[in-house]
Amino acid sequence: MESADDRVGELRRRKAQSEAGGGPQRVDGQHKKGKLTARERLDLLLDDGSFQEIDALVEHRCTDFGMEGNVIPGDGVVCGHGTINGKPVHCYAQDFTAYGGSLGEMHGLKICKILDMAIKSGTPVIGMNDSGGARIQEGVASLGSYAEIFFRNVRASGVIPQISVIMGPCAGGAVYSPAITDFIVMVDQTAHMFITGPEVIKTVTNEEVSFEDLGGAMTHGSKSGVTHFTAESDEDALDLTRELIGLLPSNNLCGVPTLNSADNPTRECNGLSSIIPDDPNKPYDVCAVIRDILDSDAFLEVQADYAANIVVGFGRLNGTTVGVIANQPKVLAGCLDIDASTKAARFVRFCDAFGIPLITLVDVPGFLPGASQEWGGIIRHGAKLLYAYSEATVPKMTVILRKAYGGAYDVMCSKHIRSDYNVAWPSAELAVMGADGAVQIIHRRRIDAAGNPEQERQRLVDEYTERFANPYQAAAMGYIDDVIEPSQTRVKLVKALSMLLDKEETRPARKHGNIPL
Question: Hey, what domains does the chain have and what are their CATH numbers?
């Protein structure tokens, strides 16, 4: 008969076998690739000593292809919960040393349990992906577990923040769980995402493409827009994830995070008084405006390398987390195009789902013209941003810095789509279009009939500019709430946010709207 000590010894042996993963040789192989193990990643992500593992002794149930003789407790994924700077989170990390991190039935059901617990407890969930994909030996059971995960990702959407950290291969059906989550962090050079790999593409289409060019972090960060952050290493990715968690609420009901800010709420932004060039066609960096307005800690830009003509990201204003959307004049003159509209719309919808107030900085000459944009569906994609802002009920504050032309003026969180606090700098120009284009349309015949057409055209441009290239007509009509000095922007926004934090606004009852996807 076994003694109590024997039973404890057996437990410890099993736990040690689970913690060993695929064994020292495979752990060494992981390190040689510049990658951390699943448990090392969890140690870096979570506060010291806070991790509590769940399902460490789960084993697969496959008896085909010799799998009955290849059993590793834990089944290739480490699951549990812990804290990040004291905030509870649920998390899982796929273990590439065990079965190549491949997802089998039980592996997938472990992740499902974590998602279920996260939804019930109202905590963010972080998944660290490093997997060879579906476990072929388990066939449709593996695919079934994938679908169970996808279903839970959708159910959790807008309820708890979901972050996917891609730290190795993520291919085939595996990519859909990260794609449904709120944010994807990819590690440069070691992480890859694609539906079909280079070999399959070469066979089917005869295209030759490398893993990195097809699905690397830089590709998805700049070309496809699939990912939101690119990290230089595992350590960098986990630091970034910790920073992001600190900015986000734990769930959709708990309220936006507010910390004591060391930055003075009445600080004037004197550098903004001269940031707008005298030449209305000259660019400047809107990120400088964002950083001056927000609290002095860093602004966390989202999708910095994708659709750079619009800037989105998180920061704090007087300690409260806010989401910022800003046209970027130094890229495509800040025009809205297909990619920028979709990027901003998704960000606005995330912030609205989790009660994060929005600050919109406007300098937009319009939508990008061109046949490729029209054929690509700029009407539909631009409508996504219009829909997102109109649907949002969080506090919405808008500052018009310079140009606000045409339909893009409406779309960029104008008063007409229910922004709460709209102000403009004296440099603001609210009009259907720029003076040159407007004069050419309105006064074409008059210019053609003039003795000196160029002189007459310039006179009419100057007249139009004086009348419309300013914020005062809009202020007179109540379309903006105030015209403010640029240096007062932070002070005005702090006061507005303080008033709006308890805002309540409802929409007509419905199952859901039909956003123009």
Answer: 4-247 (3.90.226.10), 270-432+470-500 (3.90.226.10), 435-468 (no CATH)
Is 408 a residue of the active site? yes
Query: Is 172 one of the annotated active-site residues of the chain?
Result: yes
The answer to whether the beta carbons of residues 390 and 438 sit under 8 Å apart is no
Catalytic residue among 139, 173, 319, 437: 173
101 touches 132 (CB < 8 A) = yes
**What confidence tens digit (pLDDT) does each residue in 41-50 have?**
999 999 999 9
pTM of the model: 0.95
Task: Give 168's pLDDT tier (boundaries 50, 70, 90).
Answer: very high
pLDDT, one tens digit per residue, over 306-353 is: 999 999 999 999 999 999 999 999 999 999 999 999 999 999 999 999
Q: Select which of 80, 101, 172, 221 is catalytic.
A: 172
Query: Considering Cα of 136, then 141, then 144, then 145, what sign does the dihedral take?
Result: negative
Q: How many Cβ atoms sit within 10 Å of the Cβ of residue 99? A: 24
Instruction: Given the residues 408, 431, 469, 474, select the one marked as catalytic.
Output: 408
Q: How many whole angstroms separate alpha carbon 170 and alpha carbon 173?
A: 9
